[in-house]
Amino acid sequence: MIAAAPDFEPAYGSIADPSAADERALVFPFIGQKLLIGPDAALPRQPMPQNLGNPLRALRFGVLAGRDCVLRVWPAGLAIPPDLSAGDYRSLWGQWPPGYLAAFVRARQLVAWVLHNRFCGACGQAMEAGRTEIACECPACGYKAYPRISPVAIGIVLKGDEILLARSPHFAPGMYSALAGFVEAGESAEACLRREVREEAGIDIRNIRYFDSQSWPYPHSLMLGFIADYHGGDLVAQEGEIEDIGWFRPGGLPILPHAGSLARRMIDAVCRTLAKKTRRP
Ligand SMILES: [Zn+2]
Fold first, then answer.
1. pLDDT at 88
2. What is the fold, at CATH topology level, of the domain defined by 150-279?
3. Residue 26 to residue 8: CA distance in whole angstroms
4. 175 class by beta-carbon count within 10 Å (0-12 exposed, 13-18 middle, 19+ buried)
């Protein structure tokens, strides 16, 4: 996402006084992990409502169309001011331009990192914002916590002109998508995909080729997309994880994830390739 939005550049700068207002900056205010937005899904005007008090942390996290982006984080549990509401990545899709969405993806992950590293994991001391690099730093023992990125392998499996798609119980009604899972410690992304497909679908795959990647803010994932070919075995949906699974032809696809998602881009690309093959004499 970040690479696909040329008008947003990630950056970092600590802000010593989190209550200091910056009228020129684009401020992304969060209460806990909820982004506060105004009417029409716009970022709230400055200054923020007085009843929120001083934020826990403020930091500069990027530059969007020449303007500094500033994150201000208040602790979870505070009431959302009456003229504002909580914005969600999926609901902002289609309403915000790509640069704003890329900024949100980074901000949302940094908020989780700030909130989960208020105290040192090694000695328990309160952490401070790194002055020169993006880190939560312990003034007592020197431990540094960097933003966590969790790689996820996501894959489209092909069998002839059919595409493997599955339904997780938490998906929107009727929606199917690619199989995906978190990479385990010590595992390659390709080995992860092989394992996930075997666990969730009961089949083996081969010829795994990289497609593209996408940063995903729930909670701090980096989706690594692959396309692979069916190699053997019968489809068996993993109990509790997969509600339904099946082979679909491009002409008879179920409801798919939204157009900006990596899963959808892979499905669309595979369908285009299959259509070209079908047209060939
Ligand atoms: Zn420490």
1. 83
2. Nucleoside Triphosphate Pyrophosphohydrolase (3.90.79)
3. 12
4. middle
Q: How far is the CA of 216 from the centre of ligand 1 (A)?
A: 30
- 58 with 34: CB under 8 angstroms? no
- Residue 73 token pair: 């984080």
- Compute the distance from residue 140 Cα to the ligand 1 centre, in Å: 5
What is the Cα–Cα distance from 151 to 257, expressed in whole angstroms? 20
CA–CA separation, 193 vs 202, rounded Å? 12
**What is the domain class of 8-116 according to CATH?**
alpha beta
Q: Measure 254 CA to ligand 1 centroid, in angstroms.
A: 51
Interval between CA 128 and ligand 1 midpoint (Å): 10
User: What would the two tokens of residue 276 be?
Assistant: 């070209």
Q: What is the pLDDT of residues 142-200, one digit of tens each?
A: 999 999 999 999 999 999 999 999 999 999 999 999 999 999 999 999 999 999 999 99
Q: Are 117 and 79 in contact (CB under 8 A)?
A: no
Give the distance (Å) from ligand 1 centre to CA of residue 137: 8
Q: Which residues of the chain have pLDDT under 70?
A: 1-6, 21, 280-281
Strand, helix or coil at 57?
strand
Distance 97 CA to ligand 1 centre (A): 40
SS3 12: strand
Intra-chain end-to-end CA distance of the chain, in Å? 38
What are the extents of the domains in the chain? Answer: 8-116, 150-279
Q: Residue 111 Cα, ligand 1 centroid: separation in angstroms?
A: 20
